[in-house]
Amino acid sequence: MPSTAVLKSTTAALASYADKLYSIRNQRLALQKKVEAFQAEETRLKDHLIATLPKNDSTGIAGKTCRISLLVKDVSQADDWDKIHAYVRKTGNWELLQRRLNNRAAMEILEDGKKIPGVSIFTKVDLSINKL
For residue range 106-115, what is the model confidence (pLDDT) as tens digits? Predict the structure, then answer.
């Protein structure tokens, strides 16, 4: 971990800091590569479980340390931002807009039987992981 000591400004100290920065950066990059490898393996396992667990009411499996359950929900997705912006201007439903669609607001409108131009629905499947 980096020291919290007061930094000196002599040429020798600055050169030492440069070397320490290089060393710390290389250590971080090495750890980052390890983290990326873990993330890739985690994604591979998660994708495999999503693809192979049954998509019915009993959607889960328990190991010795955790239980995995499929989480299936509809998620709104913007298909045509121009149409969405026109809809928002016309209806005043500004709560739809964030940097992405506000899924809760979109789903409420759609569940009321109304259509939102430029929005489609897709089913998102994820996992819930709980320690036993």
Answer: 999 999 999 9
